[in-house]
Amino acid sequence: MGLVSIPDRYRQVRERMAKAAARAKRSEGEVTLVAVTKSATPEGIKELIALGQRDFGESRVQQLQQRAVQVAEWLARQAGKTEKPLPKPDEVSWHMIGHLQRNKVKPVLPLVRYVHSVDSLRLAEEIQAAAPKLERVPQMLLEVNVSGEGTKFGVAVGAALHLAEQIDTMEGLQLAGLMTMAPASENPEDARACFVRLREIFEEIRFKKIGGKNFRHLSMGMSGDFEVAIEEGATMVRVGTALFG
Predict the structure, then answer these.
(1) Can you tell me whether residue 84 is helix, strand or coil?
(2) Angle at the Cα of 181 from the Cα atoms of 199 and 100, rounded to 5 degrees
(3) pLDDT of res. 190
(4) C-alpha–C-alpha distance, residues 220 and 230, integer Å
(5) Res. 96 pLDDT band, cuts 50 70 90
(6) How does pLDDT run across 48-80, given as a tens digit for each residue?
(7) CATH of 6-244, one of 3.40.50.300, 3.40.50.720, 3.30.390.30, 3.20.20.10
(8) Which of 15, 37, 55, 208 has a Cα at 20 to 30 A from 67?
């Protein structure tokens, strides 16, 4: 059996997303596919962009810097050269999805539209300090350690509401939603309780009107469990292996 091509993988992931959304009586358009580039080649990323993918995620700072710059330069060079028009560089969005150290905030922020992994007030303050130099308001997702695993980053479930309140009072930032990682498991159903709990925390924060109308994202679900995440309300799924192998 030959290798599955990236266009085939992309189509399969999109079909699975559509079916999961239909099961939950949701529109597929409510869910953003964030293509995680950890195992991708530069050619693979370009292929996905040509297929229409616009959101990409990276968990390591150095890798994010390299890939974002490479993609922007490539798109600038391709302008007007291809049969099917490619997006402008600023139409491709990068998401920082991994743990972000405070000393790495300045180089990362200008490159990304979303930071999915805000897990402390001190990190939020560092982002706030860098925000005035940016062209856009940083969109931040609060990472919540719903599983309680010691190996995972994220604020504890009991502290999430209070931290969300604190971030919401900070000028020049937007609290855009919540993120979590479910425990690793062969069975996607094992992640469901984790996703249900994150959605409950999300609804509680929204009920208290924290974050305003822009508090709307639930970033949850990866290659092994994104369909369950969509069924439980995810608005962003972070998929790498299913796209790039």
Answers:
(1) coil
(2) 110
(3) 95
(4) 8
(5) very high
(6) 999 999 999 999 999 999 999 999 999 999 887
(7) 3.20.20.10
(8) 15
Collapse the DSSP code of 50 into the 3-class scheme (helix H, G, I; strand E, B; otherwise coil) and give the result: helix
**What residue spans define the domains of the chain?**
6-244
pLDDT number for residue 81 = 80
* pLDDT surpassing 70 at residue 113: yes
Give the helix ranges, DSSP H, for the chain. Answer: 6-23, 42-51, 61-78, 105-108, 121-130, 157-168, 192-207, 226-231, 241-244
> Inter-axis angle of helices 121-130 and 157-168, to 10 degrees?
30
**DSSP states along 118-170:** E-SHHHHHHHHHHGGGSSSPPEEEEEEETT--TTS-SEEHHHHHHHHHHHHTS
User: Is the Cβ–Cβ distance between 149 and 137 less than 8 Å?
Assistant: no
Question: pLDDT digits over 171-220, tens only?
Answer: 999 999 999 999 989 999 999 999 999 999 999 999 999 999 999 999 99
Strand (E) or helix (H) holding 179 = strand 174-179
Structure tokens at 50: 């040509």
The neighbouring-strand residues paired with 36 are 57
